[in-house]
Every structure is written in C-alpha cells, then in structure tokens.
Amino acid sequence: MSRIVVAGSSGLVGKSLVRSLERSGHEVLRLVRRAPASASEIPWDPRTRWLPVDALAGCDAVVNLAGESISKRWTKSVRDAIVASRIQATSLLAQDCVRLGVPTMVSASAVGIYGDRGDEILDEASPSGGGFLAETCLDWEHALHPARLAGVRTVSCRFGVVLSRRGGALPKMLLPFRLGLGGALGTGRQWMPWIHEADAVGVIEHALADGVHGPLVSVAPEPVRQGDFAAALARCLHRPALLPTPAWALRLAMGEMADELLLASQRCRPTGLIASGFGWRYPLLESALADLFP
Question: CB burial class (10 A; 0-12, 13-18, 19+) of residue 276?
Fold first, then answer.
C-alpha cells in the first residue's frame, strides 16, 4: 500500500482516480481549497503558496491535477487564472516534494502543448508549438523542473480530450446531436486526440507504478479526425451528423478558444505508453462510446 496525495481531486479525472486508488488499497490524502471535511483532506491555497509544512511528509507520491477550467471564453482574467492556477500549484508541490523527499510526482499536462500541427505525427520527442495553450502547457511542465533536477521522478501526462458522461467536453456535445443538429466542427479534417476517462485514470496509475518519467502522451492509440468522431458519436446516439459548424461561427461564439480547442489539429501517438506496456481498456473510439452510451 502506498500513501498518495492528490491535488485536484474534485475534478473529472481526480474523483475517479481517488476511488480507483482507494479500491486498490492505497491511502489517499486530498488537498482541498476549503475547510477539511474528513481526516483524509488537507487544506491548501496555491494562490498564496500556502501548504501545511508536513502535508506531504511520509507520502510515496503526489498527483497534481489542479488547474482552472479552460472551457470558458478566454478573457484576460480567465487566461491569467488558467496560467496561474497551473503554475502556482505545480511549483508549490514540486518544491515540497524536494524539501520532504517525496520520490514521485505525476502532474497533468495536455496535448495543447503541440499547438496546431496538421497531419504531423506527434509524440514525446516532438517540440512544442505556438499559441496560448502551448505556452501554458510548456510553462506548466517547466514548473516540475526543480523537482526533476533534485532527483524526484516526475511525469507530465499530456492528456487529450477526456471522454466521460460526467463532465468535460462530451456532455456539451450531446444536445445538438440528440436534436439531430450535430456535425463536424470546421472542416472536420483536424485530428482530435482523445482518451476514455477510465484509461486516463489508468495512465496516472501506470505512471505511479511503472517507473516512467518525463512527458507522457496520454491518448488512445488510434487517432481520429474530428469529423469521424462526430460521425461515430451520431451513430452511437442513433442520430444524423449532417450539420457541420463552420469555423467562422465557432470563432464568433468562442473567440481564440475556438481555434486552439476545437479547430487545432494534433495527431498524437502515445509512444511512451506503448513502449512501457500500457494496456488500454478502450483503445478504439467505437468501444469507448459504446461503454459511455450502452
């Protein structure tokens, strides 16, 4: 049994991760930004760089999933909050891992680090791209460097779109499809890296146990174009997918966020996961959607 501290445990992946770790017999302590409700919760405030002095003492690993949602229109204040929430939390936890000798830290990142790359095949060896998300993810991962240099085994899980019925991007897509108004976004030719929620949790558990280090592209092994994703979702819901949303309409509604979240193309290959023997429960989009919409 390991003692694992989780930041961001109230988020989509965090909730499932805590349940899974506890089922496996691990002791899980959750960092919370409110008054603790149980002995397994530890208060902290990354915005003021406050963490109880012994919060990470004696733990075997830290998992950092903390960060402001990116699914809001990117005003200046929202952009500042997206960046600050990730850098502040990661740097504070990395600093304490070094101070208290925590051997492993696994932190979230995202495939947004690559920017818009067309049909280029991307993996852990690929350079970062341009744009707000790419710069944010690069700074996010750099916040781990002090821990890495001090000998902490660090892993940055570069997640694609996490598919879940409980939150994230998928529920936002359902209404237009159920009304028969769904379709591709923009041209639909852009590559959409995705991963089932259960496999996102599995990747973190794999990173904790396997000894991998550095960036880890955390997506399903079979990439799909966004138009093919829309068609597969429509089939699963027994609805048509006949009404594409033009890029100009997305930009009008969402601004810069549309280009970086919905229209950017990232053809990601999970080279590190394949090489380390990770086994996906849902490697194919059809099986993932069939599980989510039985």
Answer: middle
Phi-psi region of 211 (alpha: psi -120 to 50; beta: other; left: phi over 0): left
Closest listed residue to residue 124, CA positions, set 146, 103, 141: 141
Q: What are phi and psi of 260, to 5 degrees?
A: -90, -30
Domain span at residue 204 reads: 3-292
pTM for this structure? 0.95
The CATH number given to whatever domain includes residue 135 is: 3.40.50.720
CB 222 within 8 A of CB 148: no
On average, the pLDDT of the chain sits at 94
pLDDT tens-digit series, residues 201-211: 999 999 999 88
Kindly tell me the sign of the dihedral angle through the C-alpha atoms of 86, 116, 196, 188: positive
Examine the pLDDT at 1 and tell me if it is beyond 80: no
Q: What is the pLDDT of residues 123-180, one digit of tens each?
A: 999 999 999 999 999 999 999 999 999 999 999 999 999 999 998 889 888 888 888 8
Is the distance from CB of 64 to CB of 9 less than 8 angstroms?
no
